[in-house]
Amino acid sequence: MASRLDRKLVVDTALRLLNEVGLDGLTLRRIAKELNVQAPALYWHFKNKQALLDEMATEMLRRMIADGPDGPGDAAKAEALGMSWQDMVTGVCSALRRELLGYRDGAKVFSGTRMTDDSAAQPLEIFLGRFVDAGFTPDDAVRCWWTAYNFTIGQVIEEQSVYPVPGAPEQRSAAVRDPAYDLTDRERRLGADYPLAARAGRELFDEMDRGFEAGLRVIVAGIEATMAPRKATAPRREAGAEPPRRAAASGRPTASGTG
């Protein structure tokens, strides 16, 4: 029997078991068996599985923040280096994806949960501050970051359905792909009647690194086109060209809604 059963021990055990059995197989009974205690003993610390998932997600975030200079939580370094908001979105989302892929069903655990402490506040403050420093309104900053974040979470959920074994993207191969995603069989079934849908399988379920990077570029470009302050996206003029005329002040809001 565990000598001292506390929340941290339960969560650490749950995260380790997650990689073995996945989210569906992770039950309080299974965790209790691993700890050599009776399941009711866990209810002193977590009233139900959702409460445990909330703490697991929070611990995952704590680990990300502590990961060092390449971790998604190291926003302070990004601020010190004067990283652009574009590079911040790309870098932080890429690092978040890599961290979540390290846990089986990591994105499902991380999404839709409530943080049990304020670990997320400091990095979020710095992320939003990077946008605001670039001229975005606070509300637009939130929307920009939230869009990129949700794209990343959704991407990883899809990836982990295809490649359930946890690990870095570069370590994956067709051998660890879920057999349900047999791309050759898919192309054979769909090719004659639905050639475009058949061809899409390789891009959707095989080229996931490329798809993620392309998706981030689309998001950054969309933010630049629709929400970024004009001074941040003004077209470069050729030498000697006349500057564009400024519109008379009308009191109308600008593209960023700042007025």
UniProtKB/TrEMBL annotation:
PANTHER family: HTH-TYPE TRANSCRIPTIONAL REGULATOR RUTR, TRANSCRIPTIONAL REGULATORY PROTEIN. InterPro entries: DNA-bd_HTH_TetR-type_CS, Homeodomain-like_sf, HTH-type_TetR-like_transc_reg, HTH_TetR, Repressor_TetR_C, Tet_transcr_reg_TetR-rel_C_sf. Residues 235-245 have a biased composition (Basic and acidic residues). The lineage of its organism: Bacteria, Bacillati, Actinomycetota, Actinomycetes, Kitasatosporales. This is TetR/AcrR family transcriptional regulator C-terminal domain-containing protein. Residues 246-259 have a biased composition (Low complexity). Residues 4-64 form the HTH tetR-type domain. Keywords: DNA-binding, Transcription, Transcription regulation. It holds the Pfam family TetR_N. The keyword Transcription regulation applies. The keyword Transcription regulation applies. Gene3D superfamilies: Homeodomain-like, Tetracycline Repressor, domain 2. Residues 229-259 are annotated as: Disordered. Residues 27-46 bind DNA.
